[in-house]
Structure formats: C-alpha cells, structure tokens
Design a protein that fits this description.
2 domains, Aminopeptidase, 9 helices, 12-stranded mixed sheet
Length: about 270
C-alpha cells in the first residue's frame, strides 16, 4: 500500500535509511531538516503489513526515492510522478534501474559516479586552505559564478551569496577555501549534511590557478573535518581526471547516482 508517512513512523523510517547512509542521504537530510511534510516537501511510504518496501520524497520540484525491498510496486512510482510532475527524478543506480523501463520514455538520464571516504590513510600539506566563514559568502559566490558547471540554475550574485550565507548561519553546510590575490580561487563545501553523512559539492578551482593543488587541499580539509565530526563524506563525479584525484584522497566508488531530468509532461 502506498500512503503518506505518519509522524509516529518518522524515527522508524530514519533508522531504516541510516543503515545505508550514503545512498539514502538526500532523503535522510530532507526529513531531518524539514520534517516529513511541509508546503514544499512530501514523503510517501510503500508498505505491506508494517514492512517498508520503498520511500518516495518530493522536495519542491525534485523527486528522490529509495527501495528497501524488491517486492515494491513500480507502478506506485509512476503514479506519484504523474501527480507531482517533478523536473528531476533521482536515485542510486542499483535502485533506479528497477524502475527505468517504466519512465525511460520521458526522462533524460545523466550518470554520476558515487563514492565515499571512510578514512584518510595519509596526509597532505594544508598550507593554503582555511575554513570558510559567513563573511566569505559573497567572495565565494563571485568565484562560483565564473564556473560554467555551477551556472545551470540562473542565480544572481546576490541570490547566490544569500543562499551560501544562510546555509552557513543555519549550520546546514561547511566549507573550506583557498584565497589568493583577494579572491576565492578554490573551494569545497557540503551540500547536504545528515546526522551521519555529508555530501561534498561545489568543488572548484578558478582556471588560472589550476595545477597548484588548491582544490585538492580544500577537498582534503573538508573530508578531514567531516570524518573528525563523525560524518561519512561522499560525492559525485563524472570527470575521470577528477575521479583519480578523489580516489587518491581516499574516496572509493561504490555505486552510480542517476540524475533523470524529466522532459515534458508525465502522462
């Protein structure tokens, strides 16, 4: 049966999801930060006789799901997508492939390697990197604005600054940066944090400063900080060169994350 998750089931659901903290990170993070249901978020569960088979979550126009059991009903996902009409539908590949035949006609899929770091077995010199502060938000935003891959969503400098500032102020994100010549030249931050995991994102180095190891220092410092605070850091990549760097920093690829952009109306 597919239905809304009840308030009294919240901890039971989170405890189940925390057994696979990386693949379930976005759902865990959204529920921990926002609760089960708001005006922009809804959480559904598929269950039989009290056993959870799947969980589906809508956050604004994004949709993410996690499968607990192979006996779930794929049609429930399709029915929810018709109802929600999201712009994205995302999940780990090992889960996504079980429903792909039903949705392949209206999605455009991008695959990202999914990796995590459980320990750092060597050290690197962190001579240039420092923790980012709230007061750095505008400088970070101005540098991010120069990186093409971070401009898929049309944001002004002011909007990007406010987004970074608010996440720092609310302790929803942490970041490390390298500053040279009065600007942020390299940066790495967490996009999502749960009680057990953290998603590393917004990793960049300005083109004219590449090849100096600045981004490597930022990612290393952020990874170390997460591990020291009991968080399992993970990240996505689709660039093989970036992947080699992440692997040298202790990250291990364990799955693929599927980013499915919905093309047109779902019928």
């Amino acid at each position: 049966m597919l239905r809304l998750v009840r308030a009294e089931e919240k901890e039971k659901l989170l405890n189940r999801l925390r057994k696979d903290p990386s693949r379930a990170m976005f759902i865990i993070g959204d529920i921990e930060q926002n609760g089960l249901h708001t005006d922009y978020q809804t959480t559904w569960i598929e269950e039989v006789d009290g056993e959870f088979l799947a969980v589906y979550l809508k956050y604004h126009k994004n949709f993410v799901f996690y499968l607990f059991d192979n006996s779930f009903e794929p049609k429930h996902l399709l029915d929810l997508l018709k109802q929600v009409q999201p712009i994205n539908c995302n999940a780990a590949k090992s889960h996504f492939n079980k429903v792909y035949p039903l949705i392949q006609s209206f999605v455009n899929v991008r695959e990202m390697f999914f990796c995590e770091c459980t320990s750092q077995d060597h050290g690197i010199a962190l001579t240039d990197v420092r923790r980012a502060k709230v007061s750095d938000a505008e400088a970070i935003a101005r540098s991010l604005d120069r990186i093409v891959e971070f401009n898929m969503e049309p944001l002004t400098i002011e909007e990007r600054t406010e987004r970074i500032r608010s996440r720092f102020e609310e302790n929803k994100s942490r970041g490390f940066m390298v500053e040279k010549d009065g600007q942020v030249v390299a940066y790495a931050s967490t996009a999502v944090e749960t009680g057990t995991s953290a998603m590393v994102a917004s990793v960049f180095c300005l083109p004219e400063y590449r090849g100096k190891g600045y981004a490597k220092q930022a990612v290393w410092a952020l990874t170390e900080d997460c591990l020291n605070n009991g968080l399992l850091p993970c990240l996505f990549y689709d660039n093989p060169s970036a992947g080699r760097i992440y692997h040298r920093l202790g990250y291990v690829t364990f799955d693929t994350w599927m980013l499915a952009k919905v093309e047109g109306e779902i019928r």
